[in-house]
Amino acid sequence: MGCSGCSTGRGANNLPGGCKSNGSCESGGCNKLNVFDWLSNMSNPSMVNQPDWVEVRFKNGRKAYFDNKEKLSLCVGDVVAVESSPGHDIGTVSLIGELVRIQVQKKSIKTNEILNIYRKARQNDIDKWQEAISMEKSTMTQARKFAIELGLNMKICDVEYQGDKTKATFYYTANQRVDFRELIKIYASTFKIRIEMRQIGARQEASKLGGVGSCGRELCCSSWLTDFRSVTTSAARYQQLSLNPQKLAGQCGKLKCCLNYELDSYLDAIKDFPESNLNLKTEDEEFFHFKTDIFKGIYWYTSKQDKLNFIPVPVDRVKTVQGLNKNGEFPEELLEVIEGFDKEREIDYLNVVGQDDLTRFDKTNNNNRRSKNKRSVKNRTNQVEVDKKNAQNFPKKKSKLNKSKKKRLISQQKKSNQYNPKKKLNPKKENKQDIDSNGYNQSAEST
To answer: Of 81, 103, 254, nearest to 175 (Cα)?
Structure first.
């Protein structure tokens, strides 16, 4: 999806490829780096004699500011021919009015460097622009092949043709300085155009290519972020994040830009925190810092004797213990008991439906129990009939006595003065089972 100015649908019949607003959305269309004109319905009388500046958007969010000296009636989404060096370029108007002046001041653009708008694009200008756009993909493929053949340590990541097909800009990334003089000669002789090489960083490459981040949303650099500030690992340390490069790195291979978003909040929160590199000493043990919960204001300590026992200590208590240790005093206990911290867990939500209970499938209803009891009675009567048939058809075999049973029977006979060593022991007579008139074993039923 994309309007006429973005890389996916730009130049397609001068209409947006995705939305049906014909390129005149209030927010500037469905392009990258949109700006909502919140001053569009306001008129400023003091701007009568001021120059009329217009923001024009090109491929992949590249924007420039031009002066409308011809006083053309322009609106957001119009395709215009603007001044370039050499020749002219074709772009789409993305912002007009007073907000353009604020953007120029914000980006510190010199007024003498602002070029002019020639005219609204004619049909032949748009046709030539579309031809140039269709050549970009094949040109980038050939350009990469030439760079590989020359053995240059660089990556061609994007190619942008000028609207009049007289110039092409090759964007590349490289870790070291690259001598591409021979490469430019090959490009000029092959493509028959003016060549411009422009080196960009890994973050700018990700903004051009786009993608979806680990948060599930579109990359910030390709949607709204234009100011790429340096990100260091200290930002992750202040936020108590694990220094895992696979989790902290974005699609560009650098540290994620979003690590700086909440950094100021963490820095403000830890202003009143004591030093964490000082061990706390009591009369019996010495405790060292393990981790910090910044927004709860708790330091976690563990002792050298029992390293698996983590003790939460409030910041105020840490300050008092550190003050006592400096004066050579050692408290009896590290922590005054926090009521309800370990015994009862604070509930942050209400489980209304009961779907979060891990043992919800272990609970049985009373109706199921009743049905099971009914089934057990039926099974018991059926089992009686089966036992009768088995007793008639399959008589029991004589079982041999184990040593333990034999000893137990001998001891019972000795007590009753019925023991005869010449007589064989019969387990059926000794362990006689009562059989009712139907031939069913009552002892089995009782069990």
So the answer is: 254
Over residues 203-226, the pLDDT tens digits come to 999 988 888 998 999 899 888 888
- The identity of residue 116, as a single letter, is N
Of the candidates 357, 309, 358, the residue with the CA atom closest to the CA atom of residue 335? 309
| Per-residue confidence (pLDDT) for residue 189, from 0 to 100 | 94
Instruction: Give the largest CA-CA distance in the chain.
Output: 136
Residue-averaged pLDDT of the chain? 79
pLDDT reported for residue 33: 73
> Beta strands 115-120 and 88-96: pairing type?
unpaired
Domain ranges in the chain are 1-121, 129-200, 207-269, 272-357
The β-bridge partners of 92 are: 57, 79
On whether the CB atoms of residues 147 and 183 are closer than 8 A, the answer is yes
**CA separation for the pair 79, 57 (Å, rounded):** 10
Q: Are 22 and 29 in contact (CB under 8 A)?
A: no
Question: Residues 239, 263: contact at Cβ < 8 Å?
Answer: yes
DSSP conformation letters of 210-243: --B-TTSSB-HHHHT--------HHHHHHTT---
Quote the pTM value: 0.64
- 115's enclosing H/E stretch is strand 115-120
- Report d(CA 176, CA 178) in Å as an integer: 6
Cα 135 to chain centroid, rounded: 36
Q: Which fold has domain 129-200?
A: GMP Synthetase; Chain A, domain 3 (3.30.300)
